Amino acid sequence: MNQKPIYQSRFESLNCCILIPTYNNEKTLGSVLQDLLLYTSNLVVVNDGSTDTTKTILKDFHEINIHHFEENKGKGEALKHGFKLAEELGYDYAITIDSDGQHYPDDLDVFLTHLEEKKPETEILLVGDRNMGQDGIPGKSTTGNKFSNFWFLVVTGTQLTDTQSGYRLYPLKVVNQIKLYTNKFELEIEIIVKSAWRKVKVRNVPIKVFYEENRVTHFRPFWDITRITILYIWFVLVSFFYIHPRDTYQDFRKKGYKRFWKENIIKSQEPAHKKAAAIALGVFVGILPFWGLHTLLVFSLAAMFKLNKVVAFLFSNISIPPLIPFIIYASYQAGSLLTGHGLAWELRPEDFDSTADIFFGLWQYIIGSFALAGIAALLLWIVFYFLFSVTNQKQVIKP
């Protein structure tokens, strides 16, 4: 009598399966599948047009749901097909694992435990954290991962320490509703970014990893990194001009000014100097003469300096239409003082009767806007630092 797989009852109660996309991994595929079958029989394999002995190997695994592509389409396409196939089979979640032997099957417990503990009203997407700083991890993998982690933070506001691990748990109903356009390795980035935008809790979970010296990898450093970079450029544009403003506006509208100020700013656990710095940064960027780019700048700088992006964005809206003429006028006057021309209270068309005058006036405005932005930011930082310091002190001594 065959023994029941170790985690079979847990996989069944959670409606979860394991999804393995594979391409030309004949050396490790068989052992990976045999090891996984010790834990569950809920396996789905997508053979991405392998040209080695993969088909022959898979013939020995009759208990596994297997689909073959006639030609190689890329890991992204294999995953997309696998997600749809898994949902059609009745599963709600899929744990993806690579077939190159770098992942440990006993780490399935980590994913299952988090899934068992999740709240019913929230949805989660888990990404294995391979601890990329440990010995034995290739330098190229570490560098690429740091690049991806930073830009994932910028476009989603979520801090991850590993965004490129293939060992993951996906909520199928969410993933299969997302319009996905990529079909190679970058699909894994596309999914976690778009899931985060849909308010799915994207988190890292600790896993082990084994890097064999001569392991087979189909990652093409130049082309795949280029594709990931282009994808992030697009995400930056979408997030700065739509996602971040939308989320901030919805949160602000839902809470109202008083509640938003109290919960998101006053009661924030950040130190007073960082809260004041977020406000100062917002005002500084809002005054600068980079019209149309304020959102991009404020979110980029807030992420770079690890400041509250929501607060910085709100205060960057100082440059709203009713205030724009006053900001431009004050900037021009500040520039006039800095260039030694003194204040010119009245601006008349005849003062700009040549191209040189126009360019000099523009230069005065640009110089003045930076000066005005710096002075306003510094003064606001001092005022709000004092305000937040007093408020934080009251919260500490409050019984």
Automatic annotation (TrEMBL):
GO terms for molecular function: transferase activity. Gene3D superfamilies: Spore Coat Polysaccharide Biosynthesis Protein SpsA, Chain A. Residues 262-394 form the DUF2062 domain. Keywords: Membrane, Transferase, Transmembrane, Transmembrane helix. It comes from the Bacteria. InterPro entries: DUF2062, Glyco_trans_2-like, Nucleotide-diphossugar_trans. SUPFAM superfamilies: Nucleotide-diphospho-sugar transferases. Residues 17-174 form the Glycosyltransferase 2-like domain. The chain crosses the membrane at residues 225-243, 276-299, 311-332, 362-388. GO terms for biological process: protein N-linked glycosylation. PANTHER family: DOLICHYL-PHOSPHATE BETA-GLUCOSYLTRANSFERASE, GLYCOSYL TRANSFERASE. This is Glycosyltransferase involved in cell wall bisynthesis.
